């Protein structure tokens, strides 16, 4: 009734406006509307008084019959690996378990009650492991077993592995669901091995460790080389190999300036090169009946046991810090006394 | 160099170890081998919808129509995207993928400038972009301009012209559409060999041209390609001329040409014996020329044998061909067996005694195990196997165990991909269920049915009718309600003419089961089904109601869209109730003591008596009467009795008796009753003594 009433009140500017569209579809018509003088009126939206005619009834969408959720028809002895073969988002219609997540927070509703799986968006957000049940794993292992070789018999212990496979080379492959299969992190190559696997003399080993710097872990005696400067893995691998080779052979070289090393540059106390040894020899020789006839080696052999003890204790006093200083000094005192047959 | 650095004898603990250590050899595999073998361990699950559909109850299509609509819309969307991409190709240059995926990019658009001074690279580019006709045009232009075109390029172009019949290759359908190709492309439905070769086409022109300048090696390639093209497009006579020419010029045929020749033998020679002789002749020639046959060769021979239907020597020859295959070390593929089946069962009646199909299944199952539970596509004929096997198992053998065995084999791993299109799948399942419904027991059939319907197979109306027949013969009461929901889901309850038949039959089922005493729950369920039908198909259509309510003025000004909608509505068939359906519904509703609903149905009947087909049934009228008496609706009861009288039903006497015994009748009512009795033409009615 009201619509009819409205229409009677209207003065209609043009015939076209009789059939205006309903207000649900505001559209700027291209036809000329009401005019004042030579200018058209700007009408951004239809004026409300122009609304006439019956409102178009919105067609109710027809929904098809919705089947009940799948889990109702599942048998109890079905093979779950076929129902959920791969990783997917949680689907309430498929999982036949009474899973809940979260709780009702509103005071007005059932506060504190858990929310069921139906229309529970939280369950879809979290990752699930329905595709990795023990049965799945068994099945997958059986399927790809044909591509596996048996474990070599010789590698029966960790030592054996270390023995036969002295170096460990680590690279990483990255798999993302993106259009690109590239990942810059895949270029990094890591070499890892124990220093005992290499042949060294004392100097070479010392030099090697010094050259390696922080890459050497003294606690585990392991050296780690990481190469990531080049853009590709192969290049980094080659570079790491080069680095290792160069390090090794460099450490065996003795440069001219290394000969100039004095006692102050020692990284440890070498008794054999120290003036302490020369003086000990002098004293021991002097104590012999015929000092000119004996050479230094035979003198040392004579007192081998005592000399060894003396050497150990003096090295300890020189090398070790303040920790056991008292004990070390005590030992040193006792050794000196016994060596020279002195008594306090 | 590096490894010499490491010394293995340094640590004393390992000094005793032997020095030699051999790494295990890596087992070679393709980049996707792991994925493939993981994929092979997933069995088909009838519960989940196909991969192209979204797995959500609201979005899973169940009826065949819906599936088709969804799949085709999806492929249409893809095509639209492709079209936009090709139309506005300048906008699609951003490449995020590494390695780049060419098919995600617009097609290359050739610039006319490139054709001004064409050379060989232009030709190759055109060929790569499947522009064969244009390539030929440009080739001509090159010749005119005296631009050098190398021989390999020429021959590549000629090969393409032969392969694609002097035309640009057809666009590849998206897989969703490919499934329905049989319904979509009208041409060559029958599968008959029609001659489609283009006479005097570009290929022939180029052949004549190249023939003049070819060296012997080039001639071999030239003639072989040409002959293959002719055979491929079924121009056998001309192909034979070419082959004769080849023999005269002593040009050797290659394996592909021999295969085509053997495949087309049935087009070349008329009678069966001569065809076989022809085949043998060419096989001997192959032997002389030291050409080793492949799988395709044998399949082609069997194809020819199959085209000799009812040839007495067919089966024995087929077996000898199989033997020959084994001796050549070629494992028969599914396509080979498909041909063998058709040779042994040439029509619907012959071949049961040979028991070849069970033997083939034995063989295949063994082979499947040996192959690591995976069959590969080996020949184009492989697609026919399951269809042929099921067809012959159900029509010729009528062996339910065999049919189920074939089906089990089909469901194994990814074997179902050997059913290549929707039509063949439909036929496969139709054959299977036809057979099972006829000969098997419900305990076996129903689980199989439920494992396949509706996600893998959406049955056609004939199979649904067979199912209802099956359910009614075995009187499977537990399945009645389930059947209703299946009917709804599979889209059989709608306005279409055929489906009224389905509803009628279904209601018959419900009524029939009503004979024995039913639990109340079931009666209520059945009544609910009745109400659902009424809700789905209102007695008075909604639009009519609205139109009556609207003032006339408003109706006149309906715009074009509304009129179109109205026309559309009118063009759609309306659901027409018949007397049968109405009386069945009344019966169902009165059983559940729903007087209101059943009375409105009865009134509808009275109002449209003249237009309705079939009157109401006796039984439903009687049950409505007893309900109205029970609920004390005397006027209505009298009206029902009048109707019974009008229809001259025998039960009038019972009806009179029933109402007569009712206490609440006043004098007027009794007079009406008497009047009815007087007017009745039935003798039995007059026997009832009215108070």
Automatic annotation (TrEMBL), chain A:
Residues 183-251 form the Small ribosomal subunit protein mS35 mitochondrial conserved domain. InterPro entries: Ribosomal_mS35_mit, Ribosomal_mS35_mt. GO terms for biological process: mitochondrial translation. GO terms for cellular component: mitochondrial small ribosomal subunit. It holds the Pfam family MRP-S28. It comes from the Eukaryota. One of its GO terms (molecular function) is structural constituent of ribosome. This is Small ribosomal subunit protein mS35 mitochondrial conserved domain-containing protein.
UniProtKB/TrEMBL annotation, chain B:
PROSITE patterns: PPR (PS51375). It comes from Rotaria socialis. Transmembrane segments: none annotated. Coiled coil: none annotated. One of its GO terms (biological process) is regulation of translation. This is Small ribosomal subunit protein mS39. GO terms for cellular component: mitochondrion; ribonucleoprotein complex; ribosome. The keyword Kinase does not apply. PPR repeats lie at residues 294-332. Residues 560-571 have a biased composition (Polar residues). Residues 541-571 are annotated as: Disordered. The keyword Ribosomal protein applies. One of its GO terms (molecular function) is rRNA binding. Belongs to the mitochondrion-specific ribosomal protein mS39 family.
């Amino acid at each position: 009734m009201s619509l009819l009433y409205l229409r009677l009140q209207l003065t209609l500017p043009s015939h076209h406006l009789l059939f205006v569209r309903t207000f649900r579809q505001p559209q700027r018509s291209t036809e000329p509307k009401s005019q004042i003088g030579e200018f058209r009126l700007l009408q951004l939206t239809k004026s409300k008084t122009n609304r006439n005619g019956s409102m178009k009834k919105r067609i109710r969408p027809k929904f098809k019959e919705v089947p009940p959720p799948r889990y109702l028809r599942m048998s109890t002895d079905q093979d779950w690996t076929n129902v959920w073969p791969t990783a997917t988002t949680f689907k309430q219609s498929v999982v036949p378990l009474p899973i809940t997540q979260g709780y009702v927070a509103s005071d007005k509703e059932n506060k504190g009650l858990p929310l069921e799986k139906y229309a529970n968006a939280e369950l879809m957000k979290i990752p699930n492991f329905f595709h990795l049940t023990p049965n799945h794993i068994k099945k997958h292992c059986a399927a790809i077993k044909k591509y596996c070789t048996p474990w070599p018999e010789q590698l029966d212990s960790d030592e054996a592995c270390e023995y036969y496979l002295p170096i460990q080379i680590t690279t990483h492959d990255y798999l993302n669901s993106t259009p690109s299969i590239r990942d810059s992190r895949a270029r990094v190559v890591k070499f890892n091995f124990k220093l005992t696997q290499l042949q060294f003399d004392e100097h070479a080993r010392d030099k090697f460790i010094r050259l390696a710097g922080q890459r050497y872990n003294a606690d585990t005696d392991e050296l780690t080389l990481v190469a990531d400067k080049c853009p590709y893995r192969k290049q980094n691998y080659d570079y790491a190999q080069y680095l290792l080779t160069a390090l090794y052979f460099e450490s065996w070289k003795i440069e001219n300036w290394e000969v100039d090393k004095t006692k102050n540059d020692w990284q440890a106390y070498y008794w054999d090169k120290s003036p302490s040894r020369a003086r000990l020899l002098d004293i021991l020789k002097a104590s012999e009946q015929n000092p000119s006839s004996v050479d230094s080696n035979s003198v040392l052999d004579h007192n081998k046991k005592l000399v060894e003890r003396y050497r150990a204790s003096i090295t300890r006093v020189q090398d070790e810090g303040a920790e056991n200083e008292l004990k070390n000094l005590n030992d040193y005192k006792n050794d000196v006394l016994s060596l020279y047959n002195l008594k306090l | 160099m590096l490894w010499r650095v490491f010394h293995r004898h340094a640590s004393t603990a390992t000094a005793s170890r032997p020095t030699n250590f051999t790494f295990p050899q890596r087992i070679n595999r393709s980049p996707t081998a792991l994925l493939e073998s993981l994929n092979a361990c997933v069995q088909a699950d009838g519960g989940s919808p196909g991969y192209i559909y979204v797995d959500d109850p609201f979005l899973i299509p169940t009826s065949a129509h819906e599936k088709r609509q969804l799949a085709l819309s999806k492929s249409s969307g893809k095509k639209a995207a492709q079209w936009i991409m090709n139309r506005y190709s300048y906008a699609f240059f951003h490449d995020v993928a590494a390695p780049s995926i060419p098919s995600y990019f617009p097609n290359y658009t050739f610039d006319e400038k490139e054709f001004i001074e064409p050379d060989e690279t232009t030709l190759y580019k055109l060929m790569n972009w499947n522009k064969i006709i244009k390539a030929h045009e440009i080739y001509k232009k090159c010749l005119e301009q005296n631009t050098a075109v190398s021989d390999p390029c020429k021959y590549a172009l000629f090969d393409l012209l032969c392969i694609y019949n002097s035309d640009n290759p057809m666009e590849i359908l998206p897989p969703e559409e490919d499934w329905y190709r049989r319904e979509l492309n009208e041409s060559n439905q029958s599968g008959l060999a029609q001659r489609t070769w283009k006479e005097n086409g570009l290929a022939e022109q180029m052949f004549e041209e190249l023939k003049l300048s070819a060296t012997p090696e080039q001639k071999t390639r030239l003639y072989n390609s040409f002959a293959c093209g002719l055979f491929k497009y079924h121009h056998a006579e001309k192909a034979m001329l070419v082959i004769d020419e080849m023999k005269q010029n002593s040009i050797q045929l290659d394996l592909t040409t021999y295969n085509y020749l053997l495949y087309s033998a049935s087009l070349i020679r008329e009678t069966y014996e001569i065809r076989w002789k022809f085949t043998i002749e060419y096989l001997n020639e192959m032997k002389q020329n030291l050409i080793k046959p492949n799988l395709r060769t044998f399949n082609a021979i069997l194809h020819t044998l199959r085209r000799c239907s009812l040839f007495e020597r067919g089966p024995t020859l087929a077996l000898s061909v199989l033997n020959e295959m084994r001796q050549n070390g070629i494992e028969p593929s599914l396509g080979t067996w498909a041909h063998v089946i058709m040779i042994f069962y040439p029509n619907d009646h012959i071949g049961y005694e040979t028991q070849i199909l069970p033997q083939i299944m034995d063989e295949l199952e063994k082979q499947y195990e040996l192959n690591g539970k995976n069959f590969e596509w080996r020949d184009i004929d492989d697609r026919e196997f399951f269809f042929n096997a099921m067809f012959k198992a159900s029509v010729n053998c009528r062996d339910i165990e065999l049919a189920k065995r074939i089906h089990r084999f089909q469901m194994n791993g990814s074997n179902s991909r050997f059913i290549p299109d929707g039509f063949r799948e439909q036929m496969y399942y139709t054959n299977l269920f036809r057979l099972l419904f006829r000969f098997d027991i419900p305990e076996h059939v129903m689980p199989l049915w439920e494992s396949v319907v509706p996600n893998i197979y959406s049955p056609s109306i004939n199979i649904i009718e067979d199912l209802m027949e099956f359910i009614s013969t075995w009187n499977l009461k537990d399945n009645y309600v389930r059947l209703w929901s299946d009917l709804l889901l599979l889209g059989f309850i709608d306005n279409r003419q055929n489906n009224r038949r389905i509803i009628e039959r279904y209601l018959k089922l419900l009524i029939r089961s009503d004979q024995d005493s039913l639990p109340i729950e079931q009666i209520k369920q059945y009544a609910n089904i009745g109400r659902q039908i009424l809700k789905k198909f209102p007695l008075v259509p909604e639009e009519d109601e609205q139109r009556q309510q609207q003032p006339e003025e408003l109706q006149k000004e309906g715009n074009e869209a509304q009129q179109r909608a109205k026309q559309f509505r009118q063009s759609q068939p309306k659901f027409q109730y018949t007397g049968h359906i109405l009386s069945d519904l009344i019966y169902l509703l009165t059983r559940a003591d729903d007087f209101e609903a059943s009375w409105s149905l009865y009134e509808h009947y009275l109002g449209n008596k003249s237009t309705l087909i079939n009157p109401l049934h006796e039984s439903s009228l009687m049950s409505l009467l007893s309900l109205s008496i029970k609920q004390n609706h005397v006027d209505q009861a009298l009206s029902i009795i009048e109707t019974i009288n009008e229809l001259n039903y025998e039960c009038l006497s019972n009806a009179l008796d029933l109402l007569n015994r009712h206490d609440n009748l006043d004098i007027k009512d009794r007079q009406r009753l008497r009047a009815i009795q007087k007017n009745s033409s039935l003798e039995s009615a007059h026997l009832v003594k009215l108070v």
